[in-house]
Amino acid sequence: MDRNSVIGFILLGVLLVGYIFYNQGQQVEARKEKARQDSIANINKPKVPTDTTGYAAAGTTGTQDSSRLAGEYGAFANAAKGTAQTAVLENDVVKITFTNQGGQPATVQLKKFKTFDGGPLMLVDGSFNRISMQLPANNNTLLNTADLFFTGGSVQKLADGSQAVTYRLSTSNPEQFLEYVYTLKQDGYAVDFDIHAVGLENVLPASQKTLALQWDNQNDRQEQDMQNERLNNQVHYESGEGKHDYFTLQRTSHQQLENKLQWVSVKQQFFNTTFISQKDNNFAGADINTKVPESGNIVGQTFTTLSIPYTRAHDFKFPIEIYYGPNHYKTLKSFGIGLENIIPLGSGIFAFVKYVNKWVIIPVFNFLSGFIHNYGIIIILLTLFIRLLIAPFTYQSYVSSAKMKVLKPEIDALRAKHGDDQQAFGMDQMKLFKSAGVNPLGGCLPAVMQLPILVAMYSFFPSSIELRQESFLWAKDLSTYDSIFHLPFTIPFYGDHVSLFTLLMTATSLMLAFNNRGMADQSNPVMKYMPYVFPVMLLGIFNRLASALTFYYFLSNVISILLQWVIQKFIINHDKIHAQIQENKKKPKSKSKWQEKLEEMQQRQQGVQPKKK
Length: 613
What we know:
- It is a single chain.
- The chain is α+β, with helices and mostly antiparallel strands.
- Among the domains are: 84-338, Distorted Sandwich (Beta-galactosidase, Chain A, domain 5), CATH 2.70.98; 354-473 and 546-586, no CATH class.
- It is 40% helix and 25% strand.
- It is built from 14 helices and 21 strands.
- A nine-stranded antiparallel β-sheet has the order 7-8-9-10-19-16-15-12-13, with no helix packed on it.
- A hairpin with a 4-residue loop joins β12 and β13 (244-248).
- α5 packs across α6 (375-389), α7 (391-418) packs across α8 (422-436) and α10 packs parallel to α12 (547-571).
- The longest helix is centred in the N-terminal third of the chain and has 42 residues, at 3-44.
């Protein structure tokens, strides 16, 4: 064995040992993370009272039971036991069922929406979902108000048509209590949640400057594609200064927010639950923990602790607004606090396309949907409108393509003349373009103009709740993929289903590439075959995307093919273009200063002395 082999084996050994240590470290971190999340879950797990009937547990006397509860619950011992009762606030769009155990929403149903399988759409359902304040008990322990029984719960109808329900959690002193007031307006998805604390400055520690509002939220499956639903399960928030940010549950398990917050939103693909503070009373911060279960129909879980600035006033109030509703752009924008930013209309390097969506696509889409109820037809009209906008650039592109086609024999002759000397070929080619009056980049402008629109559509269609569960042709739901056949197996980088709109989009993209084959540099294999390879590469990506998007791309391709045929067959006169090019060659050409310097640089690179003027 030679020295190089020994060194190679040593390096491999070092890499192997390093990988083992790294992998062990990752496993330790994973165990720590799981332990942290389990600890958080246990803390927020609903506590079952010893007796919910109002009587002492068997085997104990009333005095013994009272003493035990006083020792465990302190000043809130009277609220440790009770009978669960519900109250309902309801309007045309939302139904909220409250419970006196915790004085909180037990279920929230969006009445105008259904799940993918036709069931009622519940944003809150099950014991995991809790809204709770943390209050001190004896022995320096903390109580969650979600485990205690509040009094009240009678629904009141207000003069403006709103409905309200009030829950009160009293201490052993009736003048010290915590009160929740929920008010649901006659229309809309938002419910006012007013926290009212009276005399609690004598119960809370003197050093306490904030109140901890615990908000546990579980997102259950609502859509057909759960993988895509989890990719869109995010937490969004906006600071008191109006700065918006977010993170995805699958990528971030913990986020500590120490600045003032105006709102915090847990967003699903098409729905969200948002806690909104008033402008003059922002949340002091938030601690957010997340968990994504490995299996089941739970999309994601969040454990959020919102810090409420506490002035220690005897009569303390903190108003909150809770939004339970759809990710509808116009509805969210009506709040005037940037809540519409949770809808992904453009981000990253393509963040600028959100303005295309906000100023062009969404207004036109809303206008068409105002009098047309078939969203497939709306997409067709929207596509025609967009193609009409870029029609002048499209025409110029085809004219430029026709000119390049006329010049192709001369370009091929120059390529044969210079062989491998690409620099000399490039110089003569530019002279030919100059003399013929042809701009080689003329065909690129429409592509540049279309790129923001294509990316804007890529963001808009999968995010548009208007398309959810709307059918067209064979697509049952335009907001998700159109599956005409489910495979009994999964193809890597493709999936387990066949999307017909995606196949049609790919086929028409290949037809366009074939029609434009004369424009590619045939001497460069990459440029020659990439127009055919690229659509096939995208087949697996678009197979999972919204059928509205793939239908739009397919339709746009069909329009391009038809326009190309009509313009080249009936509008563009190749003989006239050839004659015009020949006339341009005869005209004297003046050189700009930039062209002169460029030619001088090229001549120096070739070792030719530039001509003196």
